Amino acid sequence: MTAWSEAIGTEADLRFAPLDFDHPLWVLFSSGTTGMPKGIVHGHGGILLEHLKQMRLQCDVRPGDRYLFVGSTSWMVWNLMVSSLLTGATAVLLDGSPTYPDLGSTWARAAEVGATHLGVGAGYITACMKAGLTPASEHDLGALRALVSTGSPLPLSGFEWCQEAIGPDVWLSSASGGTDVCSAFVGSSPLSPLRAGRLQARQLGVDVQAWDEAGRRLSGETGELVVTKPMPSMPLRFWDDPDGARYLSAYFEEFPGVWRHGDFIQIFDDGSSIIHGRSDSTLNRNGVRMGPADIYAAVEPLPEVLEAMVVGTELGEDYFMPLFVVLTEGADEERTKEEIVAAIRRSLSPRHVPDEIILVPGIPHTRTGKKLEVPVKRMLQGTPAAEALDAGAIDDPDLLPVYARIAAERRVEEPT
User: Fold this and answer.
1) Beta strand residue intervals within 47-138, DSSP E
2) Are residues 74 and 88 in the same domain?
3) Alpha helix locations (H) across 252-396?
4) CATH code, domain with 337
């Protein structure tokens, strides 16, 4: 562990200049889950207000706390972690892979520095659960008050594992937001009850709602995540978008004047919610809409399944819904496929059973850990891989030829 005074070597000559509230602060690039990343320009004042609220009020970060969020500088959680300094806390920076030399090294680092808040991707929690880790019994996590999960929906089994393996007194803070606002729409609240499988509450000042296709507000039903009033940290503009056309198209095309984020959300009467994944990756089979997250929740707890990804698209006159699966080493392929089908039928319905289970060496993610469902869907529809996504935004570019080949083999009709 290196103190900041040692890291910089000499005292800095800090100079402060007054700026307009909307003076550009930084350009963040979206993760690329739906295609080419967007260059998002945020402003000084909006980010300052939003992050101070998020850190102090939503996440209960206090003076003297130590805030560690595992993420690269290309993920907005790094920016949020730096903002923990606004509360008088210490930002703990981790240099290197969070899984080196083993999967449990992040817990070891958290224990070493006495982290009070630890943030990780939901995929990391799932991986630790599958590996049978019990961090609380292996490391001294006595200082840890909150475990933050984000990046993708955390399944119910992940909530249960956290309570058993981390401890019932550690607050599991599951949140969902985006690089677009560099904050959360729904997530933690130190004053609200925590229900397994749900995010606790709307975040302060965020008028987030679930809408149907006609723009009607839903309660307890799944709909489009919309924000009906401005948030301080909404983008000033997109980089290289001089007339604002791309910005308006990205968020306000579906419901004029209302921000549509592109996620499916279910909001309950008590304000808690469930994120059901990207709405543009929603499956629509015979008129029945399905969330990919529901299928992952049924499949990924199987011990033989490391990870899965489902997409659905029209191929010619048919609807094709393949499930890509990564198996553990030595797993019986045919038997596991049968177990996957049985698990989906048991947990969901026969309609959710995929048309084909395709075994692959890996699932492509953005560098922030989000599955690239939409780009793979576009590749199945005939879009060349170079146009479907930015190779620089994928965690393992070697997977691109694998999925391009699968798409070419199964595509029945070239686009006109």
Assistant:
1) 66-69, 90-92, 117-121
2) yes
3) 292-299, 333-347, 373-380, 385-388
4) 3.30.300.30
Say which DSSP state 324 is in. Answer: E
Shared domain for 140 and 160, answered yes or no, is yes
State the sign of the Cα–Cα–Cα–Cα dihedral 102, 108, 110, 113: negative
333 and 264 within one domain: no
Torsion of CA 268, 274, 280, 281, to 10 degrees: -140
124 and 169 in a common domain: yes
Q: Which residue type occupies 21?
A: F
Between CA 291 and CA 132 the distance in angstroms is: 27
Question: Is the domain of 38 the same as that of 117?
Answer: yes
* Whether residue 259 sits in one domain with residue 319: no
Query: What is the pTM assigned to this prediction?
Result: 0.77
Encoded tokens for 244: 């604002």
As a whole number, mean pLDDT of residues 64-82 equals: 91
Residue type, 93: L
Is 23 a residue whose pLDDT tops 60? yes
Report the percentage of the chain scoring pLDDT > 70.
Answer: 94
Closest CA to 305 of 113, 155, 200: 155
Residues 40-51 pLDDT 10s: 999 999 999 999
H helices present in 218-328, as ranges: 245-251, 292-299
Assigned token pair, 360: 């692959």
How many distinct structural domains can be found in the chain? 2
Same domain, 26 and 85: yes
Mean confidence (pLDDT) of the chain: 89
Q: What b-and-e string marks burial along 301-340, b requiring 16 or more CB atoms within 10 Å of the CB? A: bbebbbbbbbbbbebeeeebbbbbbbbeeebeeeebbebb
- 412: pLDDT strictly greater than 70: no
For residue 84, what are its two tokens? 């923990």
What is the residue range of 300's domain? 282-410
From 278, 311, 333, the end of a domain falls on 278
DSSP letter for each residue of 175-190: -EEETTTTEEEEE--T
Residue 260 contacts residue 254 (beta carbons within 8 Å): yes
Nearest to 355 by CA among 319, 326, 301: 319
